[in-house]
Each structure stands twice: as C-alpha cells, then as structure tokens.
Amino acid sequence: MDEVTSQFVTGNEAAIRLAVALLLGALIGIERGWVAREKKSGERIAGIRTHALVGLLGGLAALLSQTVSEWAFPLLLLAVTGLAIAAHRARMPYSQDFSITSLVGLLLTFCFGALAVAVDMALAAACAVVTALILDNKREIHGLLYKLQAHELDAGLKLLLITVVMLPLLPDRGMGPGDALNPYEIWWMVVLIASVSFIGYFAMRLGGAEKGILFTSLFAGLSSSTALTLHFSRLSRQTPDLGPLLAAGILIACGTMFPRILLYCLVINPALLPPLVLPVAVMGGLLYVPAFVIWRAHRRGAKVDRPERHRNPLELRMALLFGVLLAAIMVLGQWLKEWLGDAGIYLLAASSGVADVDAITLSLTRMSHGTIDLPTAVLGIVIAAAVNNTIKAGMAAGVGTRSLGRRVGLPNAASLLVGLGLAWWL
C-alpha cells in the first residue's frame, strides 16, 4: 500500500511539473504571438500553441531522461533545434528577417520545460518571465543602445572588471603590520567609490539633477557617503548652478550614515542602543533638517539638468587614491592601538573615522560585549562619526566651491558639537 501511495504522489508531482512546463511555454508563446499577431495563419514560425507544446516537450524530455534513457533530452533538443532552423531558413526568402531571436526563444522554452520538471519550478518560472520581458521590450532595449555613448560603455565594463573579476580574487584576511590591511575590504571600498560616481552619473542623466542627486545621495548614505562627498564636490566645480542641490545631497548622505550605525548596534549588541540612540539621532537630525531647507529653496532653480556627455562616469583614479588613503589609516590605527592600549580607543576611533565609520563601529560594538564599557563604546562611535563628517566637510570646502563648503560645513559643525556633548554627558 505504501509503494502505491508513493507512486501516486510521484505521479501527481510529475503531472504538476509538466503542467508548469506547458504554462511557461504558453507564456513565452503569448508574447511571441502578440508580436506576430498581424501575420496570417501559417506565416509565423512559432506562436502560442507551438511554444506551449515545446515547453511540454522539454518537460517530457527531462522526465524521459530520468526514467528511460539519459539520451532522451539531448536527442529531443537536437530535433527541436533542427526543426526550428529548417523553418527559419524556409521563411527567410519571403520575410528577409535574419534575426534569430525567435529561434533562441524557442530553444529556451524547451529548456525551461526541462528545468521545471528536473530541477526547480520556481527557477524555471523566473527564467521564463525574464525571457518574456526581454523579448517584449525589444524597442526599449535597442533604444538604450542608441543613447549609450562609447565612453559610458567602457566605464561600465571597467566597473564590472574591478567588481566581478578582481574583487573575488583578493584575500579576505588581515595582512601587513599587525594584520591591519585587508585587501578585500580595501578594494571593496574602491568599488563603492567607483560605483557611486557611476550610478550618480546615470541617475542624473536619466532623471535630471533633482531626482538624480536625491537618488544618488540616499544610495551613497547606505554605502559610502564619503565617496559621494568627493564626487559631488568635484561636480560642484564643473556645474556651479547645481551647488545648492549638491550640498543638500551631501548632507542627506552624511545623515543616512547614522541610521546605519544604529542598525549595526541592533544586530550585534542591542544593549548599546539606549545610550547611543539619542546622540546619533540628534546628529542625524541636524544634517537632515538643513538638507531639507536647502532642497526646498533651490530645487526649482537648477539650470543644468544633465551631466556633460563627455564626462567620465567612472572616477576610477580618485577611487584608487582613496583606497591608498584607507590602507594608510588602517596601519596608523593599528599602531595607535598597540602603542596606547585601551587608552588609544578614542584615537583609534578618530583615525578610523577619517576614512570610514563602518569598520570602527563594528569593532567597538563587538568590544562592548566585555572588552570595553558601553559609555566608552558610545563615545568612540560618536567620535568616529564626527571625525568622518568633519573630513567630508573639509572635502566639500577643499575640493568643491566655497559656497558648497559653507553649506556643508556649518550643519556638520553643529552636528559634531552637539553629538559629542551628548555622548560625553550621557
């Protein structure tokens, strides 16, 4: 009785998977049929019925490969490929259509049917939906290629090179003096800096100055507000009319750093939140409020709404220089810790805050479990955040225009003084 029940369940599951394979083929067939809906019956190579049947055939091929012979799937795939090529070649003299997109879509339909039966229905469904979207958006995708510039494509490929190829190859461990240098973490910072400039370029090009600056600022606040400050400061000299909006964007990115700090503490040591939440919240508010005021006052006055087309979207040279600076700060922080011991916590926080807040925040949060007391950890985190925002204000003043430095520097100074006062008092 148990064997009969097991076979029944297996048969039901196979039937469900074959039904999914049929429906996924029908999905792609609907899109293909919609594109060729004006053609007469018989002029289409494959419509909804053919794609649905090919999806079912792919599922049956996978099922037969599991139960009858492992050659079933490759032989049926070759058969479908041969039929599709023959039909396409017979149609070419009449349509002069040399595109093989429909052929590839048909073969993918066969594979999705097999994937639904033999591997994972959810994965097959996801692949089928993405394929249908790509097929349906032919005009939009081709339109993007016409809008894309050669230097923009080159910048995108370089970003993929440093991210997908180089980053995974780097060792994720401490090296150098006191194991202070982690090649993976340093290069990840380089990637973040380069990504901010890249995303900011296209955000402003596609959405205009107002929407592009806002989107880039929020993104950078969750990753690297320092990178955004450097990028926006350089941009303020190239496009002075965007100065107020760029200043508001820098303040938004600087303010978004504080919720990120609270999130780290919530995950690692929730006991640190009560003494930390007030100074951090006040410091963030003293940046958000001026940013909102500047944004409201100047968002309609920007005269430049797109970056210059010849400008490099990928500020790779500046990202590399900043990576070198980060490595130097890591070594300096390690020396201070070894030289002064526990008394060097604040100096370590200040030196680490020059380049990044995340590393020192994570370290002090972990140390607050027992190595250091909660007030020391809170003050160290606030010092690092205050120093980091001070450095960004200095970047805005030194790299950007004078007005940008003033708009960024005054709120940061208020945030620094009030935050340090609250942390010391608590």
From TrEMBL:
Every DUF4010 domain range: 191-400
Pfam families named in the record: DUF4010, MgtC
InterPro entries: DUF4010, MgtC_SapB_SrpB_YhiD_N
Assigned keywords, A-Z: Membrane, Transmembrane, Transmembrane helix
Keyword Transferase attributed: no
MgtC/SapB/SrpB/YhiD N-terminal domain span: 18-142
Coiled coil: none
Transmembrane segments: 14-34, 46-65, 71-90, 102-135, 155-174, 186-206, 212-233, 245-264, 276-295, 316-336, 367-387, 408-425
Name of the protein in its database record: Uncharacterized protein
Species of the source: Halomonas beimenensis
